[in-house]
Amino acid sequence: MPLHRVAAIGDNPNDLDMIETAGLGAAVGDGDPAVRAAADIVVADCADGAVADLVDRVMP
How many domains does the chain have? Predict the structure, then answer.
């Protein structure tokens, strides 16, 4: 799959490469500030369903 079609979600600095490489990089709302700054979008906090929030935003 081409990377421009991949969505990635992360919360810590070790996720920065993944978020920056993916076509859509998402950070969780309570993630590290550097990750939130690098992401294309910021979704809900981890405990509030971050992955579900991302899916809701990208799936029709």
Answer: 1
